[in-house]
Amino acid sequence: MMTRLAILVSGRGSNLRAIMRACSEGTLRAEVALVISNNADSMALETARTAGINTAHLSRQQFSDEAELDQAMLHAIEEANVNYVLLAGFMKKIGPRVLAAYKGRIINIHPSLLPSFGGKGMFGLNVHKAVIKAGETQTGVTIHLVDEEYDQGQILAQRTVEVKTDDTPESLAARVLIEEHQIFAETIQKIIDGSIILPGQ
Ligand code: GAR
Question: Which of 194, 159, 177, 181 is nearest to 22 (CA)?
Fold first, then answer.
């Protein structure tokens, strides 16, 4: 059976597109079964719809509390019958029901070498700004399991990117993103073919 993926996105969705490309090229032997965004205007939802992938816009706009949103997300993911849930630039916390049901199968990409430059508020350009401000000479990408705390789950893969002396947050983000697009699909394929074994599997 083909591995099925649910992908959660908030923004432009370049990591989603990289995963979709890897699936269609066959370097990632999986299919994107569902794309969820908390942001109705996310380009990612449009990309997915155009490719004929099921999409859902789920946010606090539609639900009176976090628990209801968590339940709706769980329902959508269960309906899609997926093996893994990937957070590809998803900027919201995953609710306890989804976490419990998919424990050890929710995988995030983060644009730094965790545990450095992780935690609350550390997302997108904020990460690269902090890396440059701290005078780091190296940064990178981390693929990790998601647990209850931001950016603290088990690390599955990392790749290093050099910080240049004339880097701006934007130029650094762009170089990190190139690595993100490769390492995310590669890591998922390693999980599928068993060269990375997730705890409990
Ligand atoms: C990516 O750089 C991803 O690593 C980061 O958001 C960007 C999303 O870009 N994620 C985080 O910061 C998570 N804390 P994309 O929408 O083009 O894939």
Answer: 181
